[in-house]
Amino acid sequence: MIEFRNVSKRYAGNQAIDNLNLTIPTGDFFVLVGPSGSGKTTTLKMLNRLIAPTKGDIYFEDKRLIDYDLTQLRLQMGYVLQNIALFPNLNIQENIAIQAESLGWPRKQRVERARALLKQVDLDPDKYATRMPNELSGGEQQRVGIIRALAIKPKVVLMDEPFSALDPISRKQLQDLVLQLHKELQMTFVFVTHDMHEALRLGQHIAVMRLGHIQQVGTGADIMQHPANDFVRGFFENEHAPRPDTVQSLLSEGYGQTTSAPATLTATATINELAAALKGNVSVVVSGGEISRALSTPDLLDYLATKEAN
Ligand code: ADP
Ligand code: MG
């Protein structure tokens, strides 16, 4: 478990974090979401002690973070950056194993670990292990960035807007990938994003931040159905800015479950109308010609993740 207790961080003349109290359960997929400048990166960097709080304490497994040996602590906290930061002069397998090497793992074990991780993210090790970073696409490089953070099996993985530089299709693929890795690896993931859709797709728990304050912590369903205040409501609704597409687009792409239940929406309804109808409902039945289909929030989020109007 990670606990922030009355944590504040002040930069010269600027209160970035103001009396933060937050609990992150062990093994959770925890998302910090908020607009730029809300203090997400500062919060994340306090977790691996890249930034020290001005006030308050952070506890990791019931021990104060500052009481850990820094090197030991960093080994427990994998870190994935927004800008893929692979070492350009090292090949892919050397990049993945760089921490393992500094820990003195034998070469054979490092290579095996790198190859197993590449396989786990669908990059054929025979093809990719010895390539250089500039021979990979952005999405492939970010896959490597992620598995590099996992290579020595940290307890916690910190991710700071890791997908924001990627196109919508790669972003969706990598969201699926981190969900799958989280399921398989049983580590705690702390994921930062400014994108509410991404937060709702990924987070088991979500903390919405604004100007150094937590606005609401809860599950995606809690936040969508019972926004704590106007900021949270507005932040969610802004993400649903008018869109030209209709519910028919989801039906055409095969989303939803066939049902004989009565329909409450027609296929000509807008995406925004569907989002509104889903508030407080697990699913909404849409009449699409002969048959009706029940569309759920995950259907909508999945659709939006691939169809983001940029
Ligand atoms: P986010 O990641 O949510 O965009 P940050 O944690 O980076 O937010 O920043 C929170 C606030 O702290 C912002 O107002 C930002 O300008 C300020 N800030 C961040 N880093 C520094 C720094 N090194 N010096 C002064 N102010 C900073
Ligand atoms: Mg940031």
UniProtKB/TrEMBL annotation:
Gene3D superfamilies: P-loop containing nucleotide triphosphate hydrolases. PROSITE patterns: ABC_TRANSPORTER_1 (PS00211), ABC_TRANSPORTER_2 (PS50893). It is an enzyme of class 7 (translocase). Residues 2-236 form the ABC transporter domain. One of its GO terms (molecular function) is ATP hydrolysis activity. It comes from the Bacteria. Its EC number is 7.6.2.9. The keyword Nucleotide-binding applies. Keywords: ATP-binding, Nucleotide-binding, Transport. Belongs to the ABC transporter superfamily. This is ABC-type quaternary amine transporter. It comes from Levilactobacillus koreensis.
